[in-house]
Amino acid sequence: MFAYVTNVPVTSETAVELGEEYRKRWGVETGFRMKKKLRGKTNSPKYSVRLLFLMLSVLLYNLFILLNAILGFGENEKRHQMTLHMFRTAMEREAKG
């Protein structure tokens, strides 16, 4: 059971729908937080370099989500999941060769 504080009028008919909307919002905020952890760091004042780093973070995040979706379908309903830390460590290891 969850409790929400909101300024939106809620009835018993709209409570479940409102809860679903909040759940979606939390998913979006989590996605932004995870992309920030995957973003490269630069001091470049050039917009193109900053945009490249942003797009790479989005690409890496989508790859992370895809890998978790693939790993999530195992035999006997077994769920395997990769953490963001495991993903970053593997990517860093591959980059070093």
Concise overview:
With 97 residues, the protein is an all-alpha fold.
What structural class do helix, strand and pairing data support? mainly alpha
How helix-rich are the residues, as a percent range?
A: 55-70%
Shape: flat
Question: For the residues shown, what is the average pLDDT?
Answer: 80
**Unreliable stretches covering 5 or more consecutive residues:** none
Count of strand segments: 0
Instruction: Summarize the main sheet.
Output: none
Portion of residues in beta strands equals under 5%
Terminal CA distance reads 47 Å
User: How many structural domains?
Assistant: 1
Order of helices and strands: HHH
Number of helices: 3
The Cα radius of gyration reads 19 Å
Describe it.
By secondary structure, the protein is an all-alpha fold. The protein has one domain (15-96). Helices cover 64% and strands 0% of the residues. The protein has helices at 15-38, 47-71, 84-96. Helix 1 crosses helix 2. It is flat and about 55 Å long. The mean pLDDT is 80.
Question: Could you give the topology of this structure?
Answer:
Elements: H1 15-38, H2 47-71, H3 84-96
Helix pairs in contact: 1-2
What are the key terms here?
about 0% strand; 3 helices; about 100 residues; mainly alpha
